[in-house]
Amino acid sequence: MYLKRAKSPRTWPIKRKGTKYVAVPSHNISRGLPLLIILRDYLKLGSTRREIKKALALGAVYVNGKQIKEDKYGLTLNDVITLRSGNNYEESYRLTYSDNRKFSLDKISREESNEKTSKVVGKKILKGRKIQISLLDGRTMISKPDIKIGSSVLIDLKSKKVKKVIPLQKNSEIIVISGKHIGKKGKVEEVLDEGVVRVAFGSKKIGLKLESIMALK
Questions:
Q1: pLDDT at residue 175, rounded to an integer
Q2: Number of H helices, E strands in the chain
Q3: What is the pLDDT of residues 79-122, one digit of tens each?
Q4: Does residue 190 lie within any of the structural domains?
Q5: Number of folded domains that form the chain
Q6: 136-145 long-range contacts, Cβ below 8 Å, gap at least 24?
Q7: In terms of domains, do 38 and 63 share one?
């Protein structure tokens, strides 16, 4: 599946002029970014799709600790990309947003590459009264019953378990994940009624809907 370059999401860090079509992420299309764009346009592992596919075939690229060989594999906010040379660790990056509202990469330490934060967007009770939460990145997990929708969780990518619950409340540090302020980071000043929070970005304060922000810490 492909998308016309001119109609690609504004969060994608690609030029509006170039080949007519661009790859579409294999999943989480509305919020995702294809691995191809990250490896070609950011990390410069090749200048063409063919070169990127060859690099992936070598098995040197990992996403959230899992070896990935599909160039259309979809990444979302806070995913971790790790490059390896054989069995040796090289470097890791976290997918985030830049100040110009586009996806970007932050280089992170080896320790940081073992975890990621995602937002809880759904919750249901399974048989045996187990609680299953659904996350913004598309994954589901069995978790503690006291995790509220709207909170975030810090995930251990090795054990696939929740390391920490990050509630969305007063003084929470957040990132905007949708709308015209996407990518901005601030602090919650007040949680208002009707699903709205007042967020401070420096000296500027803005009212935002709960679904448009994610707690980071």
A1: 95
A2: 2, 19
A3: 999 998 877 778 999 999 887 788 899 999 999 999 999 999 99
A4: yes
A5: 3
A6: 136/31, 136/76, 136/77, 136/177, 136/214, 137/28, 137/76, 137/77, 137/78, 137/79, 138/27, 138/28, 138/76
A7: yes
Same domain, 30 and 89: yes
Query: End-to-end distance of the chain based on CA atoms, in angstroms?
Result: 37
- Report the 10 Å Cβ neighbour count for 74: 21
pLDDT interval class at 32 (50, 70, 90): confident
Total count of residues recorded for the chain: 217
| Torsion angles phi and psi, residue 38, rounded to 5 | -65, -45
Domain that residue 18 falls in: 2-110
Whether 80 and 7 map to the same domain: the answer is: yes
Helix (H, G, I), strand (E, B) or coil at 181: coil
DSSP character at residue 64: T
Residues 56 and 94 in one domain: yes
Partners of 117 in the β-ladder: 154
Return the CATH number at 196: 2.30.30.30
